[in-house]
Design brief:
This protein is of the alpha+beta class. The chain has 21 helices and 19 strands. It has helices spanning about 5-20, 70-80, 85, 115-125, 135-145, 155-165, 165-175, 185-195, 200-215, 230-240, 245-255, 290-305, 335-345, 360-370, 395-405, 420-430, 445-460, 480-490, 545-550, 570-580, 585-610, and strands at about 45-50, 55, 65, 200, 260, 265-270, 275-280, 320-325, 350-355, 380-390, 410-415, 440, 490-495, 510-520, 520-525, 535-540, 545, 555-560, 565-570. The strands form 5 sheets. Strands 2-1-7-6-5 form a 5-stranded antiparallel beta sheet. Strands 8-9-10-11-12 form a 5-stranded mixed beta sheet, sandwiched between helices. It is elongated.
Length: about 600
Amino acid sequence: MDPAFSPVQQLLERLHSRHAGDDSGEVASYIPELATADPSWFGITLVTANGTVYEVGDTRRQFTIQSISKPLTYALALEAIGEEEVRRHVDVEPSGDAFNSITLQSGTGLPPNPMVNAGAIATASLIEPLGFEKPIDRILNEYSAFAGRELTIDEAVFESEFRTGSRNRAIAYLLQNSGVIEDEVEGVVETYFRQCSTLVDCRDLATIAATLASNGVNPVTGSRVLREETVKNVLSVMASCGMYDAAGDWFYSVGLPAKSGVAGGIIAVLPGQLGIAVYSPPLDEHGNSVRGVSVCEEISGLLDLHVMTPARRPPPPVRDERTLVEARSMRLRPEAEQDVLSEFGDRVRVIELQGEITFAGGEMLTRTVLEDAGETEYTLLDLGAVRGINPVVVPIASDLIDSYAELGGEILFSAFDRLPEIREELARFRGARDLEMAKDFPALDPALEWCERQLIERHGRVDEPGELSLAQHGATLGMSPDQVSRLNQHLEPRSYAVGEQIYAAEDDDVDEMLLVSSGDVNIFAGETTGGRHRIATLPAGMTLNEVPVISRKSRLGFSQADTEVTAWALSNESLQQLRAEDPDLVCTLFENFLKMLSVRIGHLVKDLLR
């Protein structure tokens, strides 16, 4: 869909129209070049975690990033030298002082956090060139990866800041005196001024925010910029310190990790979902964009974006719960085996999971599985609708496997290969403790079939069927011996090896049906086996391809021998001869076809309704 026709776009346009007339606040003037900004400039951009961009107003007008650079350089420092080393130079405590306060923490002698000028200057001093000519080149390269395009420095703003930046120099000398900065002060201050003078537009800032929202992957370019652990640390500091001494009010009313800059930009991040940027030069008494704060407050309220909103809790991890009485595989079974499954099927629980499973979901799942666990033999956890599993769930899942085993049951998984990293992590976790990995299956259907087989073997008897005679076949029920003999005269024997294709979807010239006398036949939707869905497994006594022959329509899928198969083939030509010779025989044959077809359709409908 064209974003221009989206309700989100319309919302942004209404917000822009509503707040454009707010002329409160003052453009920053302590940096002379910033004072030239037009107070009417105003843009809003929203970028989703899938890279969709919504924008309105002056979103392509360039301005300098200023203090929105601080979390980006902090992220680079964390990636470059590690959290422990960074924390030796700058703390992460909120400060009630102004952003340009010339003070350090009384106990540690460190800047309170990397979002105020003292912390940001200390952070900039930690960046080594490492393959670049200067630290600023490496910093600018990082910023460009965040924005998804090559960024440059506004030299006029840099010169203005460099000439008038006495206060920041005083902060830098204080840091040097306290042992926080070891390099020459002028070089560090120049790096800091240049990073603040990076040219961006509102769209760049929203893309930067969306990169943080997407766990460090730029959603527009698809490139990873940061590790997930770094993103968590950066967003934590932005949430508590990003809006200076107004951080408490901001988080109370807006509830999103954010950062502002004195050129008029603000970014806000809803983890996992979106990034917002607003550009409007007039600032409030805290140094934050007046329109930017108002827009973010309103959009957070309208869209319920506050991260502390109770509705932010994920949906329950259990989408559906059944037993094997209701949930069956696509293998059609003889009546005796069906009776076993009807009687003992409640000893297998099938739990379909959904969404993102975190600690809370893992704990809830544990209670669900262990409830009445002593009355079940297997619990099958289907992950087909799960988007992700937090690694914290791994030890919980491992304990669940063991606790359920102590009660006499076995945990099984299906579709676990959709989440290879978590599957490997669980296997490593259990392997390190000399514990066996739980069985897992590529999809729900083969897992259900395995469970059926276990119940039948435990509580019934698996009879390996021999080859049926024609009189024993389901197609001849109700026929007289003479009619069975007459039918036999029109049949040709067929045999198929394991895995051999019987009928393909595109074989329109096949004008015969099969009466399966031994073995099992798989029927798949589609044209080939790769990634296709099994819709039935037919045992001996069933018929195959009768619908295309009678209806003269193309078949919907293809068939393949699951085991060695023998059958009788009845061509359409022979069927017409039988119709002329013995209409009653053909009538009985068709009645039997309908009975068998109704069983197959009922089985398929039950699968579709799951």
